[in-house]
């Protein structure tokens, strides 16, 4: 069976990059989980002896510490650098950008609004770069702006990388009539949406479509629904053991895509198996 992979699938650029960095630094440790995927973290531990620290107190002299994809707060980074450890930064470049914007805009006396989840590691990291921690506000809804007293009449806004643009626009539209100056930075990352566009395109040209990912993962289910719109023979499975040879009878081309939390090695096993049919 001929296989064609979607032009974008599985882990995003930032996660792939962080894994590559971790593989380069055997016997190191990450500060907080490197990515949101326990299977992959276990694999890095087993194959590369990459450990996991949850607090700075665990860091020992001469350790090599990898900073996770979502970044860490500025003060943690400072404390880490003060220790006798080698620091390797695997923060996704799309997360470093909002950190730098917050630093610059708050130094220029803009009040800061962050559209995001206040407990998310990425947001905690980005927020920490504000000069004045009392003048940075993390919100989820336009209504959350109602009771905020900004220090300055100039506002700078950024968004958590995985947030939806539509809601961000609502927040910006609420801010503009009430403030003299609003600087809007589009820090939303398109990676999650790229997999969906690629699945849509691929499902138009294949006879059968395989979507690999967790049965409970909402982004994987979304990929299945999109695939089904164009290719009725679309199947969702977690790994190669769930493949059924009957599905491939009289089919010529099989499209494969995977959810954002599916590691490459799981995908590869499915590809090998399908190619053998
Ligand atoms: Fe991934 Fe970086 Fe975007 S971690 S979702 S590419 S912000």
Automatic annotation (TrEMBL):
Annotated binding of (2E)-4-hydroxy-3-methylbut-2-enyl diphosphate, by residue: 36, 70, 120, 161, 217-219, 261
Protein's name in the database: 4-hydroxy-3-methylbut-2-enyl diphosphate reductase
UniProt cross-references to CDD domains, sorted A to Z: lytB_ispH
Gene: ispH
Pfam families: LYTB (PF02401)
InterPro entries: LytB/IspH
Organism encoding this protein: Arcobacter nitrofigilis (strain ATCC 33309 / DSM 7299 / CCUG 15893 / LMG 7604 / NCTC 12251 / CI)
Top-rank lineage group of the source organism: Bacteria
Residues holding isopentenyl diphosphate: 36, 70, 120, 217-219, 261
Pathway named in the protein's UniProt entry: Isoprenoid biosynthesis; isopentenyl diphosphate biosynthesis via DXP pathway; isopentenyl diphosphate from 1-deoxy-D-xylulose 5-phosphate: step 6/6; Isoprenoid biosynthesis; dimethylallyl diphosphate biosynthesis; dimethylallyl diphosphate from (2E)-4-hydroxy-3-methylbutenyl diphosphate: step 1/1
Cofactor binding: number and manner: Binds 1 [4Fe-4S] cluster per subunit.
């Amino acid at each position: 069976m001929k296989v064609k992979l979607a032009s974008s699938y599985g882990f995003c650029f930032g996660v792939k990059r962080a894994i590559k960095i971790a593989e380069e630094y055997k016997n190191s440790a990450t500060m907080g989980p490197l990515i949101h995927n326990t299977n992959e973290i276990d694999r890095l531990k087993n194959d590369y002896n990459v450990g996991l620290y949850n607090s700075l107190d665990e860091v020992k002299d001469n350790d090599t510490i990898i900073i996770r994809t979502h970044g860490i707060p500025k003060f943690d980074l400072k404390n880490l650098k003060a220790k006798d450890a080698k620091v390797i930064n695997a923060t996704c470049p799309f997360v470093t950008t909002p950190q730098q914007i917050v630093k610059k805009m708050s130094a220029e006396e803009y009040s800061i609004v962050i559209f995001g989840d206040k407990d998310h590691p990425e947001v905690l990291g980005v927020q920490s770069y504000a000069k004045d921690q009392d003048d940075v506000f993390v919100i989820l809804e336009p209504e959350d702006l109602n009771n905020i007293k900004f220090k300055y009449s100039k506002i700078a806004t950024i968004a958590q990388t995985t947030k939806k643009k539509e809601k961000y626009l609502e927040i910006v539209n609420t801010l503009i009539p009430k403030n003299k100056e609003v600087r809007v930075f589009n820090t939303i990352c398109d990676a999650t949406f790229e997999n969906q566009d690629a699945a849509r395109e691929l499902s138009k040209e294949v006879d059968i479509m395989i979507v690999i990912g967790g049965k409970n993962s909402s982004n994987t289910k979304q990929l299945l629904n999109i695939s089904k719109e164009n290719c009725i023979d679309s199947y969702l499975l977690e790994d190669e053991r769930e493949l059924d040879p009957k599905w491939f009878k009289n089919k010529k081309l099989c499209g494969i895509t995977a959810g954002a939390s599916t590691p490459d090695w799981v995908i590869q096993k499915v590809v090998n198996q399908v190619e053998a049919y």
